[in-house]
Design a protein that fits this description.
alpha+beta, ADP-ribosylglycohydrolase fold, 2 domains, 17 helices, 15 strands, elongated, disordered N terminus
Length: 564
């Protein structure tokens, strides 16, 4: 259904209550849109459910097909419990942004947003990881996302986590653009940023429009016309019209131009010719492919976007989130919401689904008022009166020809707020009394565990950054006439390794990689003789140092000093 008249009234029967979404005509010019609070919440909830459904269904296929279409028999069968996606990076990252807005308000500075993101504890990849590493080094935004410091700046990252911006800005494309310039620049630049602004703007439009092409064009209005991203999405729409019944033909045209042609992969982190392609624009095309060829059907939309390959869980997540926003939670098929766990916490956030909905509702009300709208009482409850906006896209920037850096750096005081790490003092006091711990990063949920890798009472640590290891230390007076040894029993995460450095008075006495090759039955026992320091006071430091930055958790079962 296309909604193009100057006066539009949509009436939706919803749980026995009449809600409305209208556009008001004033002197032949649309000035405001209205949406009831109930309809807004219903659609916003659906947007989140769509994200969770898309990523849950597509997750088993992620990056297993690069430059090829996924065969239909490799698409898993949907199961209702797949909806509980509380540990997906394309969902939990955007909740860090929501938390910054909740705590500091819509006018939160980009520097505060950077500090909050730097202190996040979940695992990250590509532009997100590079951006956060930069922030932790003291490179403040927007330089944290600038190509000079971030070789992944054209990657998909902000695109996969920009859904929040449209869900809290219904009908407000410039709010979406502004949020991208604040949060998207933490890790992205150029097309990497535009992808998120495009996605967010589609969500913002989906509250008032259910014609998919109209929604896509509204997204395009929010990014620079001269960008390759704009060109890619425009081509996808054009080829859809040329081959409306053959999505595979359109896929092949996209693949030839935007995957195989090096001119369109000039900032690809994997190089211009690799099969792996995490550039924002081609994955953005796969979002649009699902939306256009899905014909408004949730299953078909998710499956086509997934079968396009590459980042085949994030792309259907975006596509389904936008589509579901047009549908509304009350009309979403029951199989996508019947098994939702309302108590499940999204990783490293304070939010479960009900609290997430509440925070978005609060932020949206603020966004509407801030944009010049208002909240009015009606007989049926409340309405959001939202001013019409003409999008103001950014000036064109390209990762392969970037503009100057901003020379943005965190101050010493700001760095103190970043480098504090996670406080494990209580855990170390219980696990190894007399020892202290500092610079423990928040990734991989550090702390004291009842059981890990077959052992009880295990301490898990993680480096603060690539450069700064987590250090467990104590001062010890080595007796004169006794043999003294330091005993360690340590392990690693099954997916990674780490570097153990043992220092005595600042000098390394042991430096060893802890991985599956250096452990026996997952664990490594080490005895370090301290007898040569007899009669002296020493400082012992046990450093969990990064070794490649892939699942760098240190697992400690024993930290003990013996004397005989």
């Amino acid at each position: 259904m296309k909604m193009k008249s100057s006066v539009i009234l949509i009436s939706v029967a919803l749980v026995g209550i009449f809600f409305s979404v209208t556009t008001i005509n004033a002197a032949e010019k649309t000035e405001f849109r209205r949406i009831s609070k109930q309809v807004y919440i219903d659609k916003m909830k659906a947007g989140w459910i769509g994200q969770m459904a898309g990523v849950g269904w597509g997750a088993p296929t992620e990056f297993r097909h690069q430059g090829t279409i996924i065969p239909i028999d490799e698409i898993p069968e949907w199961k209702p419990e797949m909806i509980n996606q509380f540990h997906q990076d394309d969902i939990y990252v955007e909740m860090t942004f929501l938390r910054s807005l909740e705590v500091h308000g819509l006018d939160v500075s980009i520097r505060q947003a950077g500090i909050d993101f730097a202190n996040s504890g979940y695992p990250l990849w590509h532009a997100n990881r590079a951006g956060r590493d930069n922030l932790r080094k003291g490179i403040a935004p927007p330089d944290s996302g600038h190509p000079k410091f971030n070789s992944h700046a054209d990657d998909i990252d902000y695109q996969i986590e920009a859904d929040y911006s449209g869900l809290i800005a219904p009908g407000l494309p410039n709010t979406v653009i502004d949020l991208g310039n604040k949060f998207g620049r933490l890790m992205n630049y150029g097309d990497g940023l535009y992808g998120g602004q495009f996605v967010g703007a589609m969500y913002a439009t989906a509250f008032f429009e259910d014609d998919i092409e109209t929604i896509i064009h509204a997204g395009l209005e929010c990014i620079p016309k001269g960008s390759q991203y704009y060109e890619c999405i425009s081509d996808t729409i054009k080829w859809y019209h040329e081959y409306p019944e053959d999505w595979k033909k359109t896929w092949n045209l996209i693949n030839e131009k935007y995957h195989k042609n090096p001119d369109y992969r000039r900032a690809s982190c994997s190089g211009p010719e690799g099969d792996f392609n995490i550039d924002a624009k081609i994955n953005g095309a796969y979002i649009v492919m699902g939306l256009l060829y899905g014909e408004g059907d949730p299953d078909k939309t998710i499956i086509i976007s997934t079968r396009c390959g590459q980042d085949s869980d994030c792309n259907p997540s975006n596509a389904a989130g936008i589509l579901f926003t047009t549908i509304g939670f009350s009309n979403v098929p029951d199989k996508f919401k019947s098994a939702l766990d309302p108590t499940g916490k999204f990783s490293h956030t304070p939010y479960n689904f009900p609290t997430l909905v509440g925070v978005c509702n609060t932020l949206t009300r603020s966004a509407v008022v801030r944009a010049g709208g208002k909240i009015v009482r009606t007989n049926g409850g409340e309405e959001l009166v939202i001013p019409a906006q003409t999008p103001r896209p950014n000036k064109l920037q390209q990762c392969w020809e970037p503009g100057p850096i901003a020379n943005s750096r965190f101050t010493e005081e700001e760095m103190k707020r970043i480098m504090a790490g996670k406080d494990l003092s209580d855990a170390i006091n219980e696990f190894a009394p007399g020892w202290k711990i500092k610079s423990c990063g928040s990734e991989m949920n550090p702390g004291l565990y009842d059981e890990l890798r077959g052992k009880e009472n295990v301490l898990l640590t993680h480096p603060l950054s690539r450069e700064t290891g987590c250090t467990i230390s104590r001062k010890f007076d080595v007796p004169k006439d006794k043999k003294t040894k330091l005993h360690l029993l340590i392990s690693h995460d099954t997916r990674g390794d780490w570097q153990l450095i043992v220092k005595i008075n600042g000098n390394a006495v042991l430096d060893r990689v802890i991985d599956k090759e250096t452990t026996t039955d997952a664990w490594k026992a080490l005895d370090i003789d301290l007898t040569e320091f007899a009669g002296k006071s020493v400082e012992i430091e046990l450093v969990n140092q990064a070794n490649g930055w892939e699942y760098e958790a240190g697992l400690w079962k024993v930290i003990r000093i013996s004397t005989k």
